[in-house]
Amino acid sequence: MALPDGLVRSNTAGPPAGQRTTNLADILERVLDKGIVIAGDIRVNLLDIELLTIKIRLLIASVDKAREIGIDWWERDPSLSSGHRDLDRENLDREYLDRENKALRERIEALEAVATPIEPARAPSRAARSRSAENGQ
Amino acid sequence: MTGEVLCYVYAIVDASAPPLEAVPGVDGTDLHTVEVSELAAVVSLVDRGRFNAESLQAALADLGRLEQIARAHHRVIETIARQTPVAPLRMATILWDEPGVVALLEANRSSFTQVLERIRGREEWGVKAYAAPESEVAALNAVQAIHAGLTAKATDTRLHPPQSAQLSRLRQPMLLNAAYLLDAADGVTFTAAVAGQATAHPELRIELSGPWPPYSFAGDDEGATG
Question: What pLDDT sits at residue A87?
Fold first, then answer.
């Protein structure tokens, strides 16, 4: 199918030819951040299972590498970006992600609730706007 | 072998799934399954020297190695997804040995079964939207409407955090980075709907990716129906 100019087909499967071009960040946000999590710690002894589960986020908390590939979620949270670069950032990160997802969802729901096809849609909240603006920097 | 290898677990599938297509695992070895009643874990053996916590930590902090492992992991999941419903585990879920894998399946049987049911016959599609910074407010409204429209066509939705501008190499901020879970048969209409939105909104840059294995819908239950 011919795609209109504004639509970029960036991806993955489709019959095999395109696979290599799958965007690394798209893969990482899925394989590192999604999927079933078995346990949160390295070498946890859980129900007699000895597990090695890796604190991925901590790993890519080798921050410069992470930034190179655009994994910089924590940078949008002042409590994470002000120089605490080590150790248990992971929990904070997760909390932050959850918060951000929730905030986005609420924003969308709020807008959906007031949207009508005729009147101009309500502008997003100041907070949402300034946050988006920050993200754009 | 014990003592020299670890079990890297990729995903959970039905024990009744067809034999896996040959695809190398993250350490180059073949995949096999470990079954417990109706569930099977897809596993490959990895070298203990390279995949113990310490070496892995070093490897994953190296962008080249991280990419290699992530792509290998993804290739496995993608290959399985073409053959059978798959519930991916987070990358780098590693157990000491096969009895550990059995115990894992036993301990998580009902949650694994639930995830498989949730994603059975479904695929994930990704949609990102960007707009020029100066038109961001109007664009945000458009994007929210688009997201609502696409959500109505989907079984479930997840919002990923927007990716940075460095990554996209676009000056435009990313306003939407969403994943939609669709019945496999709905991919075509969904693609058309996204294309339609792109036509209707020339001020936005809209990117479609997929179909993906249902990564974004295998984890937490948040956003799931109910």
Answer: 35
Residue A106 main-chain phi, psi, to 5 deg = -65, -40
Question: B164 and A46 in contact by Cβ < 8 A?
Answer: no
Q: Do B136 and A70 touch (CB under 8 A)?
A: no
Q: How far apart are CA A114 and CA B168, in angstroms?
A: 32
Residue with tokens 């999927």: A35
Q: Which residue of A has its CA nearest to B138?
A: A123
What does the block give as tokens for A47? Answer: 């129900």
Question: Is the CB of B53 less than 8 angstroms away from the CB of A25?
Answer: no
Distances (CA, A) of B81 to A87, B33, B88: 35, 15, 9
Chain B residues touching residue A12 (CB < 8 angstroms): 78, 209-212
Q: Which one, of B46, B90, B101, lies nearest residue A53 by Cα?
A: B90
- Identify the CA nearest to A26 among candidates B178, B187, B98, B29: B178
Question: pLDDT digits over A82-101, tens only?
Answer: 333 333 444 445 555 666 66
Tokens linked to A65: 């590498």
* Rounded CA separation B120/B213 (Å): 11
Complex ipTM value: 0.89
Lowest average pLDDT, out of B23-27, B159-163, B172-176, B190-194, goes to B159-163
